[in-house]
Specification:
Elements: E1 2-6, H1 11-27, E2 34-39, H2 43-53, E3 58-62, H3 66-70, E4 78-82, E5 88-93, H4 98-108, E6 147-149
Parallel strand pairs: 1-2, 2-3
Antiparallel strand pairs: 1-4, 3-6, 4-5
Helix pairs in contact: 1-4
Length: 162
Amino acid sequence: VLLDFWATWCGPCRIQAEVLEGLYPEYHPLGLEVLSIDVEEDEAQVRSFVEREKVPFHVLLDERGAVSGGFNVQALPTVVLLDGQGQIVFQRAGVTSERELRRILDRYVGGGSGTEASPDTAGEAGAVPPAGEAGAAGSDEGTPAAEPVDTAPESPGPDAGS
């Protein structure tokens, strides 16, 4: 699962979205899901933007910043890649190039072992609490921190992979 933290007012976020939109058709059949998480904006504003821009991913609202805070997001855009066990294997603030994302996705999506550490990603995940640990996203008061915006196309069933 790749989390894309963004906002409608963020120009670099649009650039990051275009990179993800270009890679999605190739990696989605291999099991990649992208969750586009809007940070601290209201639903009406986000819904209008998503419909106008035809965002192809599932869009979630993080209106209070609980999810982005749980992932220690300090700047937008930020991408976070989670492995099949929900552990963070890559996180980067700012626009991540197609080349770099492709390198990371090739390693972790569709049977990649994910065992080698590179200088670019080693240590990045350590600064952020993995899903399920104290301070992780969604652990706040037992309720979901991000609300879905129903605009994404049909998606495969729950057994479709990560």
